[in-house]
TrEMBL record:
Alphabetically ordered keywords of this record: Isomerase, NAD
GO cellular component, one term: chloroplast
MF annotations from Gene Ontology: racemase and epimerase activity
Family to which this protein belongs: Belongs to the NAD(P)-dependent epimerase/dehydratase family.
Record protein name field: NAD-dependent epimerase/dehydratase domain-containing protein
SUPFAM superfamilies: NAD(P)-binding Rossmann-fold domains
Database matches in InterPro entries: NAD(P)-bd_dom_sf
Domain of life: Eukaryota
Keyword Membrane recorded: no
């Protein structure tokens, strides 16, 4: 398999929570970055940030110590959520999903307290709040789902509000993927999926989401909403047809069997690209797979 498809296993041994001594003693540099939720996306952000600012320190805040050993090995100084720091950071990015918490907006508000207001604070949200389920067009400032209609979008919109009220910015991301993660990987595992095949979805590679995040952080935007997608919306069926065509996956997808679930939306982030000065490495899912669609 080509490099983008190589999957590496990593250990998770845990480590003492002593890695933020530099930050707690006030020795934070002008380009240092705090990543709240240094998972797949957060680690890629760290890697790209260090390429932009050699010599900077990158800190990572986690809910457990399970992956601290891994983080230390890749140069991220870990701390546990709730650790009291005596210093705030010029750059903060919140990448943690709302899965492991009962108060996601509160967690985002707490993360904002770690920002000194100088560089930028970025919250990676989702494109889910856009109020469209008829495969219609959406851009950065398209209408969002009203509060109270859906618990899922309520949580995201309330978290976004915490960020924007404090001068931070929001990046609403389309469906994240890489070779072994994303909708296509999940559907391959399932084989048959009870969803309609004509639902339009939108994608962005993890590497591109990371490079866009870094580009936004560097520009020091405040109180803004950006959109991250590859501008090549696909139906679910088209996604899996491309997977089959690529020949890069051993599992075989059987099909979608749903008929009545909602349709999706077609995202376009031309405005974000122009303002930030960014283009994706992978222009489309087909480009990533090395096939034409």
């Amino acid at each position: 398999m080509a490099n983008p498809f190589q999957v590496s296993a990593s250990s998770s041994m845990g480590a003492p929570n002593e890695e933020l001594k530099g930050a707690s003693s006030g020795l934070v540099g002008e380009n240092d970055l705090l990543i709240v939720g240094p998972g797949v996306l957060g680690r890629l952000v760290a890697e790209k940030w260090r390429q932009e600012y050699p010599g900077c320190q990158v800190y990572g805040q986690t809910v457990t110590t399970d992956h601290h050993d891994e983080l230390i090995k890749i140069g991220i100084r870990p701390s546990l959520k709730g650790t009291k720091l005596n210093y705030r950071f010029p750059y903060v990015i919140f990448c943690a999903p709302p899965l492991q918490t009962s108060d996601y907006p509160g967690d985002v508000r707490e993360a904002a307290l770690s920002w000194n207001g100088e560089g930028s604070f970025l919250f990676t949200s989702s494109s889910a709040p856009y109020d469209c389920n008829d495969n219609g067009q959406c851009i950065e400032d398209s209408p969002v789902v009203p509060i109270g209609r859906s618990p899922r979008t309520d949580v995201l919109l309330k978290a976004e509000k915490e960020v924007l009220e404090r001068g931070g910015s929001v990046l609403r991301l389309a469906g994240l993927y890489k070779a072994d993660r994303g909708a296509h990987a999940y559907w391959l595992e399932k084989g048959t999926v009870e969803l309609r095949p004509d639902h339009i979805l939108n994608l962005i590679h993890y590497e591109d989401a990371a490079s866009l995040s870094v580009a936004i952080l560097k520009k020091k935007f405040h109180d803004r909403i950006f959109l991250g997608c590859d501008n090549h919306p696909l139906s679910r069926q088209e996604v899996m047809d491309l997977v089959a065509k690529s020949g890069k996956f051993t599992k075989k997808f059987e099909g979608f069997t749903g008929t009545s679930d909602p349709l999706g939306k077609k995202l376009n982030n031309t405005k974000t690209r122009e303002e930030v000065g960014w283009e994706p490495k992978y222009a489309s899912f087909a480009h990533f797979l090395g096939v034409s669609n």
